Structure to design on (206 residues):
């Protein structure tokens, strides 16, 4: 089932088809395969603590339970904070056009960590949005495929390859520059305390 992103910019609607960018598909991947003595591929299995049963793939399942041990449907789960208070959740954006905010500065996306990336295929593209993206503008747009209590931000941008949606989370890091003075620390002069002794090779050759 295709996923869509609908948005408005300057009163003009746009609609995109989202395709998740898979790193494995782009760069390939390696897989380590375990073989037995006869060259047949081994399968992963779990042995119960008492050693009575060997659980192969498909014989186990995950579920949520309450304090009484009763199963709880996933739809009934409520995210809470450290104090046990329920966190506010944001509704999915699917089927609801969102407002494209911006253009925003590149620093906004640099202050985030990318968690997902999507290639966008336009079904309809507003001329104003197309022109802004062609000039290198970056926009913020709400995108939530399901309800969530986690703060996420999505950025819309384009280059010569295509149009993309980048879903991010705040990185929480404080960036430093060349003008910031380093913190002075007491570093010993004993060679034994150095993790990388670059003079060791010369001493060996004497």
């Amino acid at each position: 089932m295709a996923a869509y992103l609908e948005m408005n910019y300057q009163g003009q609607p746009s609609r995109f088809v989202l395709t998740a960018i898979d790193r494995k598909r782009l760069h390939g991947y390696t897989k380590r395969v375990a073989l037995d003595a006869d060259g047949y591929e081994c399968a992963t299995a779990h042995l119960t603590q008492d050693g009575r049963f060997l659980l192969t793939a498909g014989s186990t399942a995950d579920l949520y339970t309450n304090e009484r041990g009763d199963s709880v449907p996933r739809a009934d789960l409520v995210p809470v904070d450290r104090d046990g208070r329920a966190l506010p959740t944001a509704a999915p954006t699917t089927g609801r056009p969102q407002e494209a905010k911006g253009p925003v500065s590149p620093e906004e996306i640099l202050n985030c960590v990318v968690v997902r990336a999507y290639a966008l295929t336009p079904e309809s593209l507003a001329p104003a949005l197309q022109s802004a993206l062609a000039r290198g503008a970056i926009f913020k747009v709400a995108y939530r495929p399901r309800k969530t209590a986690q703060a996420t931000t999505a950025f819309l941008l384009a280059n010569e390859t295509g149009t993309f949606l980048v879903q991010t989370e705040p990185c929480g890091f404080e960036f430093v520059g060349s003008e910031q003075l380093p913190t002075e620390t007491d570093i010993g002069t004993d060679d034994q305390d150095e993790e990388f002794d670059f003079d060791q090779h010369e001493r060996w050759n004497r």
Q: What stands out?
A: The chain has four helices and twelve strands. The chain has a mean pLDDT of 85. The longest strand covers residues 112-124. The helical segments are 23-27, 106-110, 127-134, 200-204.
